[in-house]
From TrEMBL:
GO molecular function annotation: lyase activity
Entries under InterPro entries matching the protein: PhnI
Organism ancestry: Bacteria, Pseudomonadati, Thermodesulfobacteriota, Desulfovibrionia, Desulfovibrionales
Organism: Pseudodesulfovibrio sediminis
UniProt keyword Lyase, yes or no: yes
Entry protein name: Carbon-phosphorus lyase complex subunit PhnI
UniProt keyword annotations, A-Z: Lyase
Length: 368
């Protein structure tokens, strides 16, 4: 007979103390500071900001420290804090064409206006452990070039001028939904899908994008353009009535050139997938653009045959905070539920065994 365990505040408080001790580690080693995380683990910080839906590098670094490096827990912390903040203004849509670009590559055209800018990247590196980092690393000399503020045109515009790719949807900010204020109901429009994907779990989107590349869905992509850099954020205060810049944020953007469409009456043209993420989060932006294109299957009249094309499946399972909450709630007491199942299973087993004994042959009974 299972009975409910009676827990107490002292046990819970001690568990929290133990967690704090584990988080601190060996006290003879200097404590990890938030500034160190912010400066030296920036990719983790950027992911937490993106999936936490809050652009604040300092708070994201604090969340990583508090969570002992568990990024999903850090995302949960940041998103919980976000709910306590007042919403003062809604910013204007960012203009990534005017981005102060730090990285910009295209896999569709070699010679693009403004050139390819490799920027900071793991690409072209040998995936070999650098044991010199086990000691203090030395700051390498990095060549610098004069800053060019000239906006870089979009690579996709090269195709757009010839009508070879579908045009982006017109801006209509007054009609954009908000998944942080309203529940998602299906079917959904693309603005809701993009919001959901923007803070969706990177690993989940990466797997879905990978599946679409492997044939689960009709998606044959080319990386039209991937860019990362700083963009200005603006608001229009009611009392002023004109646009005011309030700061810059770092974003990663990806546009994929994907399968072409056409008909007897419409000229064939490529379609596009779009991804945008806070910070330097290139892999997430690429995966997001692949899934965005897959989720356009309904509008493009394509057969829905793959998980990445099913918007309800994708959007309902992409949120790692919700997913981990539902999975980890299994750790909470389920004594009564399990007791009910246990009684039912015992009853079923007894009924089957009773039936077997009743139908036993006389020979077997005599032999017994």
């Amino acid at each position: 007979m299972y009975v409910a365990v009676k827990g107490g505040e002292i046990a819970i408080d001690n568990a929290h103390r133990l967690m704090a001790e584990e988080r601190r580690g060996d006290i003879t080693i200097p404590e990890l500071t938030v500034e160190q995380i912010l400066q030296q683990m920036r990719l983790a910080v950027d992911r937490v900001m993106s999936e936490g839906s809050l652009y604040d590098p300092g708070l994201a670094a604090l969340a990583i420290k508090q969570s002992r490096g568990d990024l999903v827990e850090a995302i949960f912390l940041l998103r919980a804090y976000r709910t306590t903040l007042p919403r003062l203004y809604t910013t204007q849509p960012i203009d990534t064409t005017s981005m102060q670009v730090r990285r910009r590559i295209s896999a569709t055209f070699k010679d693009i206006p403004g050139g390819q800018l490799l920027g900071p990247t793991f690409d072209y590196t040998h995936r070999l452990l650098d044991f010199s980092l086990a000691a203090e690393s030395r700051l390498p000399e990095v060549p610098t070039a004069p800053i060019d503020d000239t906006p870089l045109s979009r690579v996709m515009d090269i195709l757009g001028t010839e009508g070879l790719v579908d045009a982006p949807a017109p801006d209509a900010p007054e009609q954009v939904g908000d998944i942080t204020q309203d529940p998602v109901t299906f079917p959904v429009e693309r603005d809701i899908r993009l919001q959901n994907l923007a803070r969706g779990d990177e690993g989940f989107l990466l797997a879905l994008g990978y599946s679409s590349q492997r044939g689960f869905g009709d998606n044959h992509p080319f990386a039209g353009e991937i860019r990362m850099g700083e963009v200005a954020i603006s608001i229009v205060p009611d009392e002023l009535g004109f646009e005011v810049e309030i700061g810059d944020i770092t974003v990663s953007e990806c546009e994929m050139v994907t399968s072409f469409v056409g008909s007897k009456t419409a000229l064939p043209k490529f379609t596009r997938g779009y991804g945008l993420s806070f910070g330097y989060n290139e892999r997430k932006a690429m995966a997001m653009s692949l899934v965005d294109r897959s989720l356009q299957a309904r509008e493009l009249g394509e057969d829905l045959v793959a998980p990445s094309q099913d918007e309800e499946f994708v959007l309902s399972h992409s949120d790692n905070v919700e997913a981990q909450g539902f999975v980890q709630h299994l750790k909470l007491p389920h004594y009564v539920d399990f007791q009910a199942d246990l009684v039912m299973v015992r009853s079923m087993r007894e009924a089957i065994l009773k039936k077997e004994r009743h139908t036993a042959t006389p020979e077997s009974e005599e032999a017994a």
